Amino acid sequence: MSKVNVRYIVNDVDAAIPFYTDMLGFKVEMHPAPGFASLSRGDLQLLLNRPGAGGAGQAMRDGQSPAPGGWNRIHLLVDDLAAEVERLRAAGLGGQAHFDP
């Protein structure tokens, strides 16, 4: 299978990294600056950007800025959804459907 790249906007890349690595099993591939990181999990490469950082974090021509939570979503397959939800709740995530630092 080919690698899939998804860019996701977050307010704080440094705060988002432990969520994706510790809670969801991603690996940091690159974290060259506070506003950007590249993470991977299997064939998924997750590119985290904060608004205003790098080319992907810049405002559109109409002035609209990228915002955390936008329309992009990733779906992670797990063997036991109930167990994963319980594990995340036990880690203090309180049943949040997404992470938006």
If you had to describe this structure to a student in words, what would you say it looks like?
The protein is of the alpha+beta class and 101 residues long. It has helices at residues 13-23, 81-93, and strands spanning 4-9, 27-33, 36-41, 44-49. It has 2 helices and 4 strands; from the N terminus they run E-H-E-E-E-H. The protein has a 4-stranded mixed beta sheet, with helices on one face. The termini are far apart. The relative contact order is 0.23.
Number of helices: 2
**Largest sheet geometry:** 4 strands, mixed
Shape: globular
Structural class of the helix and strand makeup? alpha+beta
Q: Report how far the terminal alpha carbons are from each other.
A: 31 Å
| Biggest sheet, spatial arrangement of strands | 1-4-3-2
Q: How much is the radius of gyration in Å?
A: 14 Å
Proportion of residues in extended strands = 15-25%
Low-confidence stretches: none
Helicity level: 10-25%
Mean residue pLDDT: 81
Q: In oligomeric terms, what are we looking at? A: single chain
By DSSP, the count of extended strands is 4
Order of helices and strands: EHEEEH
